[in-house]
Write a structure and sequence with these properties.
Elements (H helix, E strand, L loop, with lengths): L2 H29 L3 H27 L2 H32 L13 H5 L7
Helix pairs in contact: 1-2, 2-3
């Protein structure tokens, strides 16, 4: 087998693993019941799956232009997924849809008693 064949095989395996991770993220969104576990399912395997798929595309095409195109996609995904999960989790806490007795640490407990515009 030549180097091209090995790189194509690695790309195929990476796409398969990335697709399976994205599938598990979708299944986790449907199966999990509460907001924190759904957030973990929506962010962690999905981001890793996207990174693996982008890496597979870069290995398959073998072009610096493609790598330059895929790098911002990965960086934007790494920047936006945790931020969106944080905002969704915070809003779920404020709405009262999170099981508060099940929380080990409640960092937002004091901010809930203080109105947001009070400066505290």
């Amino acid at each position: 087998m030549t180097l091209d064949d090995w790189l194509n095989l690695a790309a195929l395996i990476l796409i398969l693993i990335g697709a399976l991770l994205c599938l598990t993220a979708a299944i986790g969104l449907l199966r999990f019941r509460d907001v924190p576990t759904r957030l973990h399912a929506a962010t962690k395997p999905q981001v890793l799956g996207l990174i693996l798929i982008c890496l597979a595309i870069a290995l398959s095409v073998r072009s610096w232009e493609v790598v330059a195109f895929l790098l911002p996609i990965v960086l934007i995904q790494l920047a936006t997924a945790p931020l969106s999960a944080h905002m969704i989790g915070r809003q779920a806490y404020r709405n009262g849809t999170i099981d508060e007795p099940g929380l080990y640490v409640d960092d937002l407990g004091d901010s809930r008693r203080t109105p947001p515009a009070a400066g505290g």
